[in-house]
Amino acid sequence: MAVHVLQGARDETDCPDPDSLELCQCDAERQQGPVTFRTLADFLGRWDVSRSIRQDDGSEGQFEGTAEWQPEGTGALYTETGQVWLGGQGPFLAERRYRWAADLSVSFEDGRFFHQIPPQGGAVAHWCPPDQYDGEYDFAGWPVWRVKWRVDGPRKAYVSSTRYIRSGT
Fold first, then answer.
1. 13-29 burial string, b = 16+ CB within 10 Å, else e?
2. Whole-angstrom Cα distance, residue 35 to residue 1?
3. pLDDT of amino acid 38
4. In a 10 Å sphere around its CB, with 0-12 CB exposed, 13-18 middle and 19+ buried, how is residue 123 labelled?
């Protein structure tokens, strides 16, 4: 379930006339549109995944598969499976798992923290010595959404762009 928040008048202190708060909020929504905050429940279920991988050396790869968020305690287990093609080779079977918490923090399968997703989308980062991961979550086209990672370091240098679309839509 998504939570909508206005990027304008939030309460009486943001509106010049507290008796007109509802009108101020409607004005703010018309001018700027609502900001949608995603919750873990929005992700539960099965999604089709398409990913392009562009190495800094010019080589390219892709991943096609599915991702599934299954409830697990107060969070969810993310399982991604599919086929990957890298450097003109493949397809190879690929699978990975993450644990998502109710607050949208993401951990590796072994429990190490990875990053915290902004519920409205936006920038994230993860330092994995010696490589830096800088990501961007984009929920603007929901229920189609995207994640882009730029990875820089001596071991890795690539951009990964992933699109998720609810399976069966």
1. eebeeeeebeebbeebb
2. 14
3. 97
4. exposed
The terminus-to-terminus CA distance of the chain in angstroms comes to 18
Q: Please write the tens of the pLDDT for every residue from 29-42.
A: 334 457 799 999 99
Concatenate the DSSP letters of all residues of 64-123 into one string.
Answer: EEEEEEEEETTEEEEEEEEEEEETTEEEEEEEEEEEE-TT-EEEETTS-EEEE--TT-EE
Reported as a pLDDT band with limits 50, 70 and 90, residue 153 is very high
Q: Which two tokens stand for residue 154?
A: 């001596």
Q: Coil, strand or helix: which one is 13?
A: helix
CA-nearest of 65, 33, 30 to 50 is: 65
Whether residue 152 contacts residue 142, with contact meaning beta carbons closer than 8 Å, is answered with no
User: In whole angstroms, what is the distance from residue 59 CA to residue 62 CA?
Assistant: 11
Tens-place pLDDT, residues 49-91: 999 999 999 999 999 999 999 999 999 999 999 999 998 898 9
Exposed / middle / buried, residue 140 (Cβ in 10 Å: 0-12, 13-18, 19+): exposed
Share of the chain above pLDDT 90, in %: 75
CA distance 120 to 128: 25
